[in-house]
Design brief:
Layout (H helix, E strand, L loop, with lengths): L6 H9 L4 H20 L6 H13 L8 H8 L4 H14 L11 H8 L4 H14 L2 H15 L4 H17 L4 H11 L5 H17 L1 H7 L3 H13 L7 E2 L2 E2 L1 H15 L3 H17 L5 H16 L4 H14 L5 H14 L4 H5 L2 H6 L6 H14 L5 H14 L2 H18 L3 H15 L7 H11 L4 H14 L4 H20 L12 H13 L5 H13 L7 H10 L6 H15 L5 H4 L17 E4 L2 E4 L14 H10 L12 E2 L11 H4 L16 E2 L16 E2 L8 E6 L2 E10 L5 E10 L5 E9 L5 E4 L15 E8 L8 E9 L2 E9 L9
Helix pairs in contact: 2-3, 3-5, 4-5, 5-7, 6-7, 6-8, 7-9, 8-9, 8-10, 9-10, 9-11, 11-12, 11-14, 13-14, 13-15, 14-16, 15-16, 15-17, 16-17, 16-18, 17-18, 18-21, 21-23, 22-23, 22-24, 23-24, 25-27, 26-27, 27-28, 27-29, 28-29, 29-31, 30-31
């Protein structure tokens, strides 16, 4: 049989192929020749054939039929055969194939070979693809080579030991004595691999971590020698002595110093030296500085050192390299919660990054800018962010608008500024805002009584300019309907009033009803606004005509509104002024809702808790019931009743969705309790004012964790209420282990129909970061049947600018809490 072609010739031939089909044909032809050679047990050219097979494998062609030939090469006595055999084993074999177990004996023999290069090949192969069984069998040989005086073998043995520890963590103790001596080695290769080995052991075992903390002074000494040593051509990279070793040592120091005062104290000085003496003109120096910054931020470092680290990141922001700027912004975003004032010094540089062409840098800069907003800089930062909102890509507008809303709500210097800012966002990016922006702005406007005339005038002007931004149009329609009389009368004091007639206002609203740009929701707002103006304007006949037209609209929602409004004009005209009067000031419900809301059987039932909040009822009972008939009110409890029905209304509240597949019919139907007079407090508050709130019997009920996900942990503690032992009082404690606060936190709960539930107001709507505080809230559950307690909870919050919502079911309540 003729000698097969050499590898170099094969490469040259394959590169001449003009098409993929031609290349495939060449490969198949050569594979056939290699198979024939393998079948004939041709030992002379086995090494050459396996080498060609590995090249084909690198090109993506199947080469699995060469696995056994690799084992034969490994068993050969020639170094050239072993080298190709071990390389083939690393490329073609892994622990999923049983063939690799046949190598164990060969590797063991080669680990004890007299030639260091053969030992090195065996160590490389074991460290690359050794299975847990192989590692167990050969760990003793690896540990023996760790103690040898040969630095070439020691560095390879250290890396092999890392792989062994990853596969079989319980063998870590075996390498402990040998590892201690590795740091005294002068060879940088051995030092580097020993630091990698120490890092792996510390990350995997808390015991090892505490054991190796005494090596911190030695590591500091090695790092200092690297910094202070002169030029060494063997280790120099761009004028810096062995930056790879420096980075590894800094990473190990970060692990050793985290949470330990003594270790952190020992490394403060050297970290300051590295931070001040490292050259920043080359990327190598920036890599070392970045690791230094991460180490300073993770250990218990001095405040001056942390400021120095943040200043380094500030210098990174001025670098021309986009990757360095992105890394700096990401790092500053992580540290802004703990070192807010230090990061504030670089605010102008961060804001400049909003103009960067790179979208990743712009996004990080936007997130960091929102994190820097506070009461002192709100005006300046909002000016920059609104400018960014005007010019940014559509992908950014939703997040930017959401961030501006949150910041304005938290830090607004005045109500006028708050309203102007939100209107500017709606004008610029109204199509991108969240769904809750419209009701939130309406609530803000309603509560700002002195700004009503100014707001309705500004919104009317905005409608004349642009009706494409639907959220803006919806808010404007609502405000014109509520405060149209102020618009027409020209009572605005904040700016020059405009002269506008009733017909002009109605023309604008009618234009919204017929505009192709208007959504069905917007048309609903406009029709309701026109209806409200029937009690504020004198053009009642025109309004009647508009409303009657839409009684036959193809839009069912619009048609229903128009039919009901027509009925108000005809049968219930005497009630129209009272029904369409201005909305009262709204209570803030963005956190967990007002404390007067009693949540019963998973539905939200507005129960008036105190007789002083009862509205004065001026209409006869028959008129109120007529209105209920008009609105389809068979399921609605009339407000003029003197008793509260114990059965909840079938009109579902938001929490009804929480029940999902939670069984509502598991137990026997409870006997209805007698009605309670409205003048008395509801059942959950019954008698609590004169009795101690909690009973000592519940002292033995153990607490429980109801939810633990994405850094948010919800714990329940239990008490018994006096005087009714059927009421369990559950206190929730919400904590946050992430690095950023969780804002707009809302906890909601629902229970099956055999229970009744009440949620009281929470202590806050912000869950502080890194477990620095908690949000508490009290739940009262009435369980007259003494059935096993089950609950479904709904959690909503905003984390790092992104809204989060999650559902969970809690079934593991302690028996003492419901028995």
């Amino acid at each position: 049989m003729p000698a097969p072609i050499r590898l170099r010739e094969l490469i040259r031939t394959i590169r001449t192929a003009r098409t993929q089909a031609e290349e495939r044909e060449m490969i198949q032809k050569e594979c056939a020749a290699i198979r024939s050679s393998f079948r004939e047990e041709d030992n002379t050219y086995r090494c050459r054939n396996v080498a060609k097979l590995l090249y084909m494998h690198m090109l993506g062609y199947p080469a699995h039929f060469g696995q056994l030939e690799c084992l034969k090469l490994i068993a050969s006595q020639k170094f050239t055969d072993k080298r190709i055999g071990y390389l083939g084993a690393m490329l073609l074999l892994d622990e999923r194939q049983d063939v690799h177990l046949l190598m164990t004996n060969c590797i063991k023999n080669d680990l004890n070979h007299s030639t260091q290069y053969v030992q090195g090949l065996a160590l490389c192969t074991l460290g690359c693809m050794g299975s847990s069984e192989m590692c167990r069998d050969l760990a003793g040989e690896v540990e023996k080579l760790l103690k040898t005086s040969n630095s070439y073998l020691r560095k390879k043995a250290a890396l092999c030991a890392v792989h062994v520890i990853r596969k079989v963590p319980e063998l870590m103790e075996m390498f402990l004595p040998a590892t201690k001596n590795l740091l005294s080695e002068k060879n940088h290769g051995v030092l580097h691999t020993s630091v990698v080995l120490l890092t792996e052991m510390c990350e995997r075992s808390p015991d090892m971590l505490s054991h190796f903390r005494k090596l911190v002074p030695q590591l500091v000494r090695i790092l200092k020698n690297l910094i202070m040593s002169g030029y060494s051509p063997e280790h120099d990279v761009s004028g810096i002595s062995d930056p790879f070793l420096q980075v590894r040592i800094l990473r190990l120091l970060r692990i050793l110093g985290k949470g330990d005062d003594d270790s952190s104290e020992a490394m403060n000085d050297i970290l300051a030296q590295v931070a001040t003496n490292t050259e920043t003109s080359k990327n190598v120096g920036n890599a070392i500085l970045y690791e230094t910054v991460l180490t300073i931020m993770d250990i218990k470092s001095e405040s001056g050192l942390r400021v120095l680290a943040i200043n380094i990141l500030g210098r990174f922001l001025l670098n021309n390299d986009k990757n360095i700027r992105y890394v700096a912004l990401t790092s500053l975003l992580k540290t802004v919660q703990t070192d807010h004032n230090a990061v504030q010094r670089h605010r102008s540089t961060i804001v400049d990054c909003l103009k960067d062409l790179d979208v990743s840098i712009k996004r990080r800069a936007m997130e960091l800018s929102f994190a820097l907003v506070n009461g002192n800089n709100i005006r300046g930062m909002m000016k920059e962010l609104l400018y960014f909102l005007d010019s940014c890509d559509p992908d950014f507008k939703a997040d930017c608008a959401s961030g501006i809303f949150l910041a304005a709500e938290k830090y607004a210097p005045s109500k006028r500024w708050h309203i102007d800012t939100i209107m500017r966002v709606l004008t610029t990016a109204g199509s991108y805002v969240r769904d809750d922006s419209v009701p939130n702005l309406i609530q803000l406007i309603t509560n700002s009584v002195e700004m009503h005339a100014y707001t309705v005038q500004r919104l009317y002007k905005a409608l004349l300019d642009d009706i494409s931004q639907q959220p803006l149009v919806q808010v404007a329609s609502w405000c014109i309907g509520e405060y149209g009389d102020l618009l027409v009368s020209g009572q605005c004091e904040e700016e020059e009033p405009i002269q506008v007639s009733e017909d002009e206002v109605l023309d604008v609203l009618e234009g919204l009803l017929v505009s192709n740009l208007s959504t069905p929701v917007t048309r609903g707002y406009s029709l309701t606004a026109i209806m409200k103006l029937s009690t504020r304007f004198s053009s009642v006949n025109r309004i009647k005509k508009v409303v009657s037209i839409y009684g036959s609209s193809i839009d069912v929602e619009l048609q229903q509104r128009a039919v009901e409004y027509n009925a108000l004009f005809k049968k219930y005209d005497h009630m129209r002024p009272a029904l369409l009067e201005r909305m009262p000031i709204m209570e803030k419900t963005a956190t967990n809702g007002p404390s007067e809301i009693v949540q019963t059987n998973g539905e939200t039932e507005s129960t008036i808790l105190d007789t002083k909040h009862l509205p004065s009822i001026t209409q006869p009972a028959s008129q109120a019931n007529d209105l209920l008939d008009l609105l389809g009110g068979n399921d609605v409890v009339p407000v003029i009743q003197t008793t509260v029905p114990t059965k909840p209304a079938s009109a579902g509240g938001e929490l009804l969705d929480l029940l999902g597949d939670l069984s509502l019919t598991g137990g026997p139907t409870p006997t209805p309790a007698p009605s309670v007079p409205m003048s008395q407090p509801p059942f959950l508050l019954d008698g609590l004012s004169s009795q101690p709130l909690f009973n000592d019997i519940a002292a033995g009920i153990p607490p429980m964790t109801a939810y633990n996900k994405n850094g948010l942990k919800i714990e329940f503690t239990f008490e018994r209420a006096n005087p009714n032992p059927n009421i369990a009082v559950i206190t929730i404690h919400a904590t946050n282990s992430t690095e950023a606060d969780m804002t707009d936190f809302v906890f909601q709960a629902a229970v099956p129909k055999t229970f009744q539930l009440q949620l009281l107001s929470p202590s806050s709507n912000v869950v502080p970061a890194v477990n620095q505080g908690s949000v508490t809230q009290v739940i009262r559950v009435l369980n007259p049947q003494k059935q096993q307690l089950r609950m479904r909870i709904k959690l909503t919050y905003t984390h790092k600018g992104s809204p989060v919502q999650d559902l969970a079911e809690v079934n593991n309540f302690p028996p003492q809490s419901w028995q």
